[in-house]
Design brief:
With 635 residues, this protein is mainly beta. It is built from 2 helices and 40 strands. A hairpin with a 6-residue loop joins strand 4 and strand 5.
Length: 635
C-alpha cells in the first residue's frame, strides 16, 4: 500500500507549524524561482542579468496586455503583435519592482539585458515597428523592414535615457550585444539579409555581403554626450549564407569575439585555424571569429575557425577568459566531432546533443584545442548559455531526457518528463576539466510540462536561470506561483550539494540481528521518499512510521522509551502521524516509498521515519525498533 503524505500533513496542522526550512539545522543551498508573465502563452524571458544590489533584471517578449508591474514604467501599455519587455524583480523573486513594455505596432523582441555602470539598464533586440522608441542622440530611427535596437532605461525602468535602431532597408536581426560603458561603445552583431544600404564604415573587413545573407558587426560610439557615431561596421560571411549570430563578447581595446552558424564553405578563417574549412551548403557549421574593430580591413581579423563535424551544428554560445581563451557550447547532430581523452561525460553524441569545446586562439592548428567533449549521456539537447568565471564554466541546456548524469547532492535528480533544463558546472582551471556540479531543473506535475532554457547569469557560485515554462521549481513566496498556459520563469540556484538525509537515534537488538533503516533518496516534491529497513526477521512484518516531529507526539515527549512495556533499550523517536504495515522479504528487508506532495509550501518541512519490527523472541513486547531517518522536503 502506498499513500500520499498530504492527508496526514493536513490532519497535523499543529505539527506543521513547528517546522520551517532548516529544521535539520543543515545549511541548504540558496534557491528561489518564480513565474513572470501575463495571460498570453506567447511570451518568454530571453535574457537575464543581476544588478549590483542583487535584483534580477529580465527581458524578453510578450503578447500579454496584463504584464505585471508596468504601471509607472516607461511604457505601461501593450501595443500589438508582440512587444519587448523589461522587468526588475527582487533577488528572491518574491516581488516585481518595475516593468515596462518596449515596442510599437509590429513585432519587437528583446534578447539582451545588462546593468550599466551607473545603474541604468541596457536592453537590446530586434524590432519591426516603425515607431520604435528612440532618442534624439541615437544613431538612427527605424527605416527598414526589421532593425536591431539598443535602449538604455533608468534603473526604475520609468525613463528612456537612450534609444537607437541599426539597420538599412531590408531585414536585419539584432542577435548579440556587448556594452563597454567605460569607453562609451555599443557592440552589435546580427544577421543582414542582402541589405544594400546597411551602414558600413571604410574600415570594414567586408564592405559588401559576399553571399545570400551575412553577419554584421557594428560599433556605436556614444562617448560624446548627446551624439552617436558609427565607429566601425562590417559584414562577415562567406559565399553561401549565414544563419544567426549566437554570441558576442568584448575582450577590451576594441577586440570582440563573435560566434554563429553558417552554410558557407568559405567563411573567413585565419592561418593555423583549428578547422579551416566547413562542410559546405549541405550542412550547417559553427564558426567563431575574433576581430579588432580598431584595425582596418583584413588586419582586423585576428582569429577565425570552423567548429564542425559531419552533420549540422545549429547553435553556438561562447564566453572568454582574461587570457583570451574561448569556451564554447555547441548544439550538434554530428556523430563525429573533435574530442579529447579522457572524455568529460560522454565520448560520443547519440542525437542532437550539447558539445563543449575550449580553445586557445593564440596557438595554431591542433595545438589550439585545449579540450573537447560531449557533455550529455542521452540525446535530444538544445544549448542555451555558457559562462566562464574564475576558472569555472557553467552551462544551461534544454534537454528532453532525465537520464543525464547528476552529481551527488544535486538540486534535482529526476522529474516527471517533458523538456526541461540541465545545469552543468566544470572546473576548467586545469587542461582536463572536472565535473563540479550537474542537475536537472524542472517543474512538478503528473503529466510532462515543458521548461525551455533560454538564458543564464553565472557569478562563479550560483546561476540565475531564465526561459519559458509550463512548469518550474517554484518556491514558497514566489511573486507568481502558477501559470495558466506558460510564462517566463526566472530562478536562482546556488551550485552546492544539498544535504543528504540524516540518521538519528539507535536501533535496539532483535533476536538474530540489530535492524537498521536507511534513506535511499531524499524527500522531494512530486517524487517519493524511498526507505529500506534491513536485518529484520525474514517473512515477518514491520510497521513504518513517518512523522512531522521528533520532539512530541500527542503530548508525549520524544524519544519515548519502550522499556516500561517490556522492550528495554528500544525507543520510539518519531511521531506516528502516518504508518504503513509491510511484510518483510526472505532476505529480512522491507522497503517503503512515501509519495511527496507537490505544493511548494511543503518545502523545508522535515519528514522523519522509523521502523518498528515484529520480533516475538527479542523481548517481552515482541518488538524491535530501528534508528530514525529524517529529510527536509526539497525539490
Amino acid at each position: 500500500m502506498n499513500h500520499a503524505l498530504v492527508p496526514s500533513v493536513l490532519r497535523c496542522s499543529a505539527a506543521v507549524s513547528l517546522f520551517v526550512s532548516g529544521a535539520l539545522a543543515q545549511s541548504n543551498p540558496a534557491h528561489s524561482c518564480t513565474f513572470f508573465g501575463g495571460s498570453s502563452s506567447d511570451e518568454s524571458i530571453e535574457a537575464v542579468a543581476v544588478a549590483s544590489n542583487g535584483d534580477l533584471i529580465v527581458a524578453g517578449y510578450t503578447k500579454s496586455a496584463d504584464l505585471p508591474g508596468t504601471a509607472g514604467g516607461f511604457d505601461s501599455t501593450y501595443s500589438a503583435n508582440r512587444d519587448a519587455f523589461v522587468a526588475r524583480l527582487t533577488g528572491d523573486g518574491t516581488q516585481v519592482l518595475a516593468a515596462t513594455y518596449l515596442g510599437s505596432v509590429l513585432i519587437d523582441e528583446a534578447s539582451f539585458v545588462q546593468e550599466a555602470g551607473n545603474g541604468s539598464i541596457w536592453v537590446g533586440g530586434t524590432t519591426q515597428s516603425p515607431a520604435f522608441p528612440t532618442t534624439l542622440d541615437g544613431f538612427a530611427t527605424h527605416a527598414g523592414q526589421q532593425d536591431a535596437f539598443v535602449v538604455r532605461l533608468s534603473s526604475d525602468l520609468s525613463t528612456l535615457e537612450y534609444g537607437t535602431t541599426l539597420g538599412g532597408s531590408q531585414r536585419n536581426f539584432g542577435d548579440a550585444f556587448a556594452i563597454d560603458d567605460a569607453n562609451g561603445r555599443i557592440y552589435i552583431a546580427g544577421l543582414s539579409t542582402l541589405d544594400p544600404v546597411f551602414p558600413i564604415t571604410p574600415t570594414a573587413f567586408q564592405a559588401t555581403i559576399p553571399g545570400g545573407a551575412s553577419f554584421f558587426l557594428s560599433v556605436l560610439d556614444i562617448s560624446v554626450p548627446g551624439s552617436t557615431t558609427l565607429a566601425y561596421s562590417t559584414f562577415l560571411g562567406g559565399s553561401g549564407f549565414e544563419d544567426r549570430v549566437g554570441d558576442l563578447t568584448h575582450e577590451g581595446a576594441g577586440i570582440v569575439t563573435l560566434s554563429g552558424t553558417t552554410f558557407s564553405a568559405d567563411f573567413p578563417t585565419t592561418t593555423g585555424a583549428l578547422q579551416p574549412s566547413g562542410t559546405g551548403s549541405s550542412n550547417e557549421d559553427a564558426v567563431v571569429t575574433r576581430i579588432n574593430t580598431q584595425l582596418p580591413g583584413t588586419a582586423g581579423l585576428l582569429f577565425g575557425t570552423y567548429i564542425t563535424g559531419s552533420g549540422n551544428e545549429s547553435e553556438i554560445r561562447h564566453d572568454t577568459d582574461a587570457s583570451g581563451d574561448i569556451y564554447m557550447l555547441v548544439q550538434t547532430n554530428s556523430p563525429t566531432m573533435l574530442t579529447s581523452v579522457p572524455s568529460l561525460i560522454s565520448s560520443s553524441g547519440p542525437n542532437s546533443d550539447a558539445y563543449y569545446l575550449h580553445i586557445n586562439p593564440q596557438l595554431a592548428n591542433s595545438a589550439s584545442l585545449v579540450y573537447a567533449s560531449w557533455i550529455v549521456t542521452v540525446g535530444g539537447d538544445l544549448v542555451a548559455d555558457i559562462a566562464h568565471v574564475n576558472g569555472k564554466v557553467a552551462m544551461f541546456i534544454r534537454t528532453t531526457q532525465f537520464g543525464q548524469l547528476v552529481t551527488p547532492g544535486a538540486f534535482m535528480g529526476g522529474s516527471h518528463g517533458g523538456d526541461h533544463g540541465y545545469v552543468i558546472e566544470l572546473d576548467v582551471s586545469q587542461p582536463v576539466p572536472t565535473l563540479s556540479y550537474a542537475t536537472h531543473y524542472a517543474g512538478c506535475a503528473t503529466t510532462p510540462q515543458q521548461l525551455q532554457a533560454r538564458a543564464m547569469h553565472y557569478d562563479g557560485n550560483e546561476v540565475v536561470l531564465a526561459g519559458i515554462a509550463e512548469g518550474a521549481p517554484i518556491t514558497a513566496g514566489a511573486f507568481q506561483a502558477t501559470t495558466t498556459n506558460r510564462s517566463g520563469f526566472v530562478g536562482r540556484l546556488e551550485l552546492l550539494p544539498w544535504p543528504a538525509p540524516i540518521t538519528f537515534g539507535t536501533s535496539c537488538p532483535g533476536s538474530t540481528a540489530t535492524p537498521q533503516l536507511a534513506a535511499l533518496t531524499p524527500a522531494r516534491l512530486c517524487q517519493s521518499f524511498d526507505l529500506e529497513a534491513s536485518a529484520l526477521l525474514p517473512n515477518s512484518f514491520v510497521l513504518f512510521a513517518a512523522g512531522l516531529s521528533r520532539t512530541f507526539y500527542q503530548g508525549v515527549p520524544l524519544p519515548a522509551s519502550l522499556a516500561p512495556l517490556g522492550a528495554p533499550g528500544c525507543m520510539v523517536t518519531v511521531a506516528l502521524d502516518f504508518t504503513e504495515l509491510r511484510a518483510t522479504a526472505a532476505t529480512g528487508s522491507a522497503s517503503w516509498s512515501i509519495p511527496m506532495p507537490s505544493a511548494p509550501t511543503f518545502l523545508g518541512i522535515e519528514v522523519s521515519v522509523q521502523a518498528l519490527a515484529l520480533d516475538l523472541t527479542a523481548n517481552a513486547l515482541g518488538l524491535t525498533t530501528t534508528n530514525g531517518v529524517a529529510s527536509e522536503v526539497r525539490w
